[in-house]
Amino acid sequence: MSIVNNIEAIENEISGKGVTLVAVSKTKPVEMLMEAYNAGFKRFGENYVQELTDKHEQMPKDIEWHFIGHLQSNKVKYIAPFVSLIHSVDSFKLLQEINKQAAKHKRVIDCLLQIYIAEEDTKSGMTEDECLEILTSEALKSLTNISIKGLMGMSTFTDDEAQVKKEFRKLKTFHNSLIETYPRLSTISMGMSGDYELAIEEGSNMIRVGSKIFGNRVYPT
Ligand SMILES: *Cc1c(COP(=O)(O)O)cnc(C)c1O
């Protein structure tokens, strides 16, 4: 299967469900992304700031770049000129920095708040309480160069489907309660190669799929 076939297969699976596919291209060379681009696919997700800025420089400028990895405050400035959506906001301090850098470029940067749902404590994110604290804070009102669009979550890395389902359901339940008060937080980014079908069943409307499109990743040792 080619990259383009893989994307088309997933697009067919999700069509009519109101789900957006983000192709996660971390560690993959520009040539592979260009195969997708040349077939009309223009939405990519990256985890590392340096890699994202390199690819942004080398590739056409009508690409929608999503940042999905852990983001350090001191690196926000490198992606602020062009990033479309940051999925991985895990603190108010980070939001403040994104706001500051977005203002320099006269932009409003869309963000998702990453909620901690997994059992492993290696997965970053904030608790539901921390999320509510941010959303109800006075200080948020002054951040006019960011727009919070919804939530992101990563499930535990496990074969235990019941566990993963439980985690997605918990996030969706929280999301449902939030959008009653904050309808603009309509995005819920959950689901990767191994669990996006389950995530969609549980109400996801944005999936982040890497290896099922580009093949397994090889990390330098
Ligand atoms: C790498 C990554 C993905 C994609 O993972 P696959 O299992 O290859 O689909 C999705 N979301 C995040 C946050 C990632 O870091």
From TrEMBL:
Residue intervals of the Alanine racemase N-terminal domain: 3-216
Record bears the keyword Cytoplasm: no
Entry keyword set: Pyridoxal phosphate
Residues with N6-(pyridoxal phosphate)lysine modification: 26
Gene3D superfamilies per record: Alanine racemase (3.20.20.10)
InterPro entries assigned to the protein according to its UniProt record, in alphabetical order: Ala_racemase_N, PLP-binding_barrel, PyrdxlP_homeostasis
Homology family: Belongs to the pyridoxal phosphate-binding protein YggS/PROSC family.
Entries under NCBIfam families matching the protein: YggS family pyridoxal phosphate-dependent enzyme (TIGR00044)
Function: Pyridoxal 5'-phosphate (PLP)-binding protein, which is involved in PLP homeostasis.
Name the record gives this protein: Pyridoxal phosphate homeostasis protein
Organism: Emticicia soli
Native organism taxonomy: Bacteria, Pseudomonadati, Bacteroidota, Cytophagia, Cytophagales
